[in-house]
Amino acid sequence: MEQRFRKGDRLLARADFERVMHRGRRVFTRNLIVFAAPGEADRPRLGLAVGRRVGKAVCRSRWRRLIREAFRQDVRAQVVAAT
């Protein structure tokens, strides 16, 4: 089974980010705001924008890696459960 975080799994275009931010639901935590919206694709996609409030570049990169990995594992678990 494919375990990479492929380009098709990412929100890359500015229009995609704006659509999710304006039409999606928001969940707030202390350090994170999660925007979620149904997409056109049959699988979920992830886009990250980590602000400077989180910390220096090393810290922001670590947040991105951790969130991407959690997303990747969750999507993989959904695929395994569906089969």
Characterization of this structure:
With 83 residues, the chain is mainly alpha-helical. It has one domain (7-82): Ribosomal Protein S5, domain 2 (2-Layer Sandwich). Helices cover 43% and strands 10% of the residues. It has 2 helices and 2 strands. It has helices at 14-23, 57-82, and strands spanning 25-28, 33-36. The radius of gyration is 14 Å and the shape is globular.
What count of helical segments does DSSP give? 2
Largest sheet: 2 strands, antiparallel
Secondary-structure element sequence? HEEH
**Named CATH topology:** Ribosomal Protein S5, domain 2
Provide the residue-averaged pLDDT.
Answer: 82
As residue ranges, the low-confidence spans are: none
Question: Roughly how much helix do the residues carry, as a percent range?
Answer: 40-55%
List the keywords.
Ribosomal Protein S5, domain 2; two-stranded antiparallel sheet; 10% strand; 83 residues; 2 strands
Summed up:
It contains two helices and two strands; from the N terminus they run H-E-E-H.
Itemize the secondary structure elements and their pairings.
Elements: H1 14-23, E1 25-28, E2 33-36, H2 57-82
Antiparallel strand pairs: 1-2
